[in-house]
Amino acid sequence: MRPFTLAAALAATTCLLAAPLAQADSTPHPAAAQATAQWPSDAPLRTAIDELAQMLRAVGHDLRQNQRTEAQYDALADWIVKRLASFPTAHADKNAAIALSDIKKELADGADIMTHATHLPARRMGYLMAVQALNRYGRTFAHPDWVPIPE
To answer: Over the Cα atoms of the chain, what is R_g?
Structure first.
C-alpha cells in the first residue's frame, strides 16, 4: 500500500478548492468550453453513471457525518475502481471523450485518496472528489432525470 503523502493531500485540497477558480478562468479547456451545450449520453454510459451515483448517494450521509471507518473507505474505493475498469469513455465528439476521460480520472483519483490517506478527513476528501466528478458529468452530459449528489 502506498503511503498518502502531504503532497498528495495538498494536491487534492488544491483541486477541491480551486474548482470554483477554474470555472472563472477566461481560457477554458476545450471540453469545458462546450460543457454548456451538454453532450448526448448513451445507455451504457448512463447505466455506469447511475450505478456509481447510487452507491455514492447511499454512503453519503455516513461520510458527510464522518461515520465511516478506514475499512469502509477501502471497500468503497475498491468498488469504484472495479466499476471504472469498464467505464465507457468513447464518444463520437472528441471533446466529450476528453471530458469522460477526465471524469474517469477524477473518480480514480478520489478512490486512490480514499484508499491511501492516513486519516479519515483526508479519505472523506476522496469521496468528495468522486461526488464532484459525477456532478460535473451531470452538468456536461444530457442524462434524463439526473439529480446532483449532495456534497
So the answer is: 15
Domain map (residue ranges) of the chain: 39-140
Give me the tens of pLDDT residue by residue for the chain, a chain 151 residues long: 445 454 454 455 444 444 444 444 444 444 444 445 689 999 999 999 999 999 999 888 776 666 788 899 999 999 999 999 999 989 999 999 999 999 999 999 999 999 999 988 899 899 999 999 999 999 999 999 899 998 8
Torsion of CA 148, 22, 123, 76, to 10 degrees: 40
Nearest to 52 by CA among 13, 97, 84, 6: 84
pTM here is: 0.74
Q: Which CATH class is domain 39-140?
A: mainly alpha
Lookup: cell for 137: 458529468
With vertex at residue 136, the alpha carbon angle to CA 150 and CA 81, rounded to the nearest 5 degrees, is 85
Beta bridge partners of 39: 141
